[in-house]
């Protein structure tokens, strides 16, 4: 019985309000138990870093995610490894063979020019739903707010379904300072010039997740969420944690 007034969440096959978890090697049996209880809170699953290439029972894992209606893709590091070795055609065949329908185009480790990524998205979108990631894993590499906006809008224009803000699984790069604090000037510009419903903010820590929930409301897209935090994040989204306690039922702040 539901009796509390809480912020309204998108449900079912969401197009925004997404929770994208990071799978860094959870065994299939454990994954089955997690999804049995919490699949309704999970929309997307990333097989983190390049782990998909060495994952035991890979096909079984992909099938399990799909069974629960969860979109699955391989981390951008695997894409970049294949790009670096000139093996993108083999990578495409690998994904198609295993029934992976989403692909990430990133430049977190390599410096792949935006024009090249634009062309790759145009090419890949015929066979995959494409995610474009912006930002570097290298903390010494700084993109201006203008460059963040330009890259995100260019990748969306090229055909990406969503764009992802790099944050690493540690939450210390890309849109974050090395201490994990959000680079608010960048977020402010994205708010003004990019369709936020098509941006997935990597936010691996609760503090970072609650920053975006309080800034954009319960239906902000969040990524790199630890699998074991899926339930906790849903509670945060609907005002069941102290830091989001006072969110109104029709809350959609976007007050940056």
Automatic annotation (TrEMBL):
TM region(s), chain numbering: none
Pfam families, A to Z: ComA
Domain of life from the UniProt record: Bacteria
InterPro entries hit by this protein: Aldolase_TIM, ComA_synth, ComA_synth_sf
Stated family: Belongs to the phosphosulfolactate synthase family.
Protein name: Phosphosulfolactate synthase
Organism: Schinkia azotoformans LMG 9581
């Amino acid at each position: 019985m539901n009796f509390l007034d809480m912020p309204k969440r998108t449900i079912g096959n969401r197009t925004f309000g997404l929770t994208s978890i990071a799978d860094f090697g959870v065994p299939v049996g454990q994954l089955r138990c997690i999804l049995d209880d919490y699949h309704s809170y999970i929309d997307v699953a990333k097989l983190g870093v390049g782990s998909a290439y060495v994952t035991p029972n890979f096909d079984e894992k992909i099938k399990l995610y799909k069974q629960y209606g969860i979109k699955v893709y391989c981390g951008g590091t695997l894409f970049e490894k294949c790009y670096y070795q000139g093996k993108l055609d083999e990578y495409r065949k690998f994904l198609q063979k295993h029934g992976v329908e989403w692909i990430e185009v990133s430049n977190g480790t390599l410096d792949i020019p935006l024009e090249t990524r634009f062309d790759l998205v145009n090419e890949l979108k015929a066979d995959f739903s494409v995610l474009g990631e912006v930002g570097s894993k290298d903390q010494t590499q700084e993109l201006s707010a203008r460059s963040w906006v330009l890259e995100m809008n260019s990748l969306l224009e090229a055909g990406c379904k969503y764009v992802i803000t790099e944050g690493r699984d540690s939450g210390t790069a890309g849109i974050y300072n090395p201490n994990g604090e959000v680079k608010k000037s960048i977020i402010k510009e994205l708010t003004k010039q990019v369709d936020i419903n098509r941006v997935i903010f990597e936010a691996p820590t609760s503090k970072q997740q609650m920053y975006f929930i309080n800034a954009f409301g319960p239906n902000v897209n969040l990524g790199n969420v630890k699998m074991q935090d899926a339930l906790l994040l849903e509670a945060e989204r609907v005002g069941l944690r102290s830091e989001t306690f006072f969110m109104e039922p029709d809350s959609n702040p976007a007050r940056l």
